[in-house]
Amino acid sequence: MRCVDHDCTQDAFCPRCGYNLRGLTAARCPECGLTFPAEQWESGVLREHVPTWLDRCDPWQPHQVLIRSLYELLRGALHPGRLLRKLDLNGRVRRAVLMLACGMAWLGGLAAAGLAAATVVHTGASPAAALRYVVLSWVPAVVAVAFTSAVLVWAMIAVIGIPRVPRAGWRQHLRLLGYWVPASAAWALVPLILGLLAVPDVVFEVGGAWPLLSGVPAIGAFARRPVRGRSRARGRLLAGLGLVAAWALGCVALAKWWLPKSLEPPWWVYF
Ligand SMILES: [Zn+2]
Questions:
Q1: Residue 52: exposed, middle, or buried by beta-carbon count in 10 A (0-12, 13-18, 19+)?
Q2: Ligand 1 centroid to 8 CA: how many Å?
Q3: What is the mean pLDDT of residues 132-137?
Q4: Over the stretch 24-56, which tens digit does the pLDDT of each residue have?
Q5: Spatial separation of the C-alpha atoms in residues 37 and 46, rounded to whole Å
Q6: Is the pLDDT of residue 227 over 90?
């Protein structure tokens, strides 16, 4: 059997413990005992498929779904590299759709609470009017822009091939989408909400750049595990960089065009 790195010159790390598998010919990590399917070993692209807490819950228990989706949202946002290296991409697609819906709902709720508080603090509007205003105008806009930006980041990751799955199909990509998009969108939304709470003038000055923060977790993951320079990977990398440019310009334009220009509630809120 041949080496995991094909020519015994490149480092290849165990996705569970980080042990360097360079030059090994048995499809097993000698440090932690993780074994690899023949397909992964032959392609030299290694990953571990670990089911999430949400994957193991009863979908007919709403409290379980809500608590576990919040936990997966926080874990994905704080450890995005884990989604790329260890998320079970062969798990149930329906559960990923559930995660996407619940994760975005949690972010919408967070946005409504944070933006209503910012409106009350900075304009002196009543809490009821502030909540009505942000739910009808701010929240749909910020959640939709953050969602769009995060989906485009997911598309770039899929094109460049960072999830490290040889011959990944739609099922694998949809699994990653469900868990990745809410975590990535949180990176755009939370700084925006905190900024509007603390220094709204600065946020309106900076304008539409905030959705680009959804790319932060991908940049971190890519810097840690760069794609190797094989010819196919290089073509993918160029396509990915083209997508990066389109994403950056598109998101900034979308945010500038769609977002309300002020926290001051308009007259119709009071009727
Ligand atoms: Zn290991």
A1: buried
A2: 18
A3: 94
A4: 888 899 999 998 888 788 877 788 888 999 999
A5: 9
A6: no
DSSP 211: G
**CA–CA distances in Å: residue 75 to residues 28, 49, 214:** 28, 16, 15
- The full DSSP string for 57-109 is S-TT-HHHHHHHHHHHHHHHHH-HHHHHHHB-TTS-HHHHHHHHHHHHHHHHH
Q: Any idea which residue has 């603090």 for tokens?
A: 121
d(CA 46, CA 19): 12
Residue for token pair 């946005």: 111
Sole residue written with tokens 């949202």:
73
Output the CA 50–ligand 1 centroid distance in Å.
14
Burial 110-137 (b: 16+ CB within 10 A, else e): bbbebbbbbbbebeebeeebbbbbbeeb
- The string of pLDDT tens digits covering residues 101-134 is 999 999 999 999 999 999 999 998 999 999 999 9
Q: What does the block give as tokens for 188?
A: 């755009």
What are the residues facing 20 on neighbouring strands?
13
In the reported structure, the alpha carbon of residue 57 is separated from the centroid of ligand 1 by a whole-number distance in angstroms of 28
What distance in angstroms lies between residue 22's CA and the mean position of ligand 1's atoms?
A: 12
Reference 240, options 170, 157, 148, 184; nearest CA is 157
Q: Looking at this protein, which amino acid is placed at residue 91?
A: G
Question: How far apart are the CA of 223 and the centre of ligand 1, in A?
Answer: 21
User: Tokens 């074994």 appear where?
Assistant: 35
Q: How far is the CA of 13 from the centre of ligand 1 (A)?
A: 8
SS3 category, 145: helix
Compute the distance from residue 35 Cα to the ligand 1 centre, in Å: 9
* SS3 state at 156: helix
Ligand 1 centre distance from Cα of residue 178 (Å): 27
- The model's pTM: 0.86
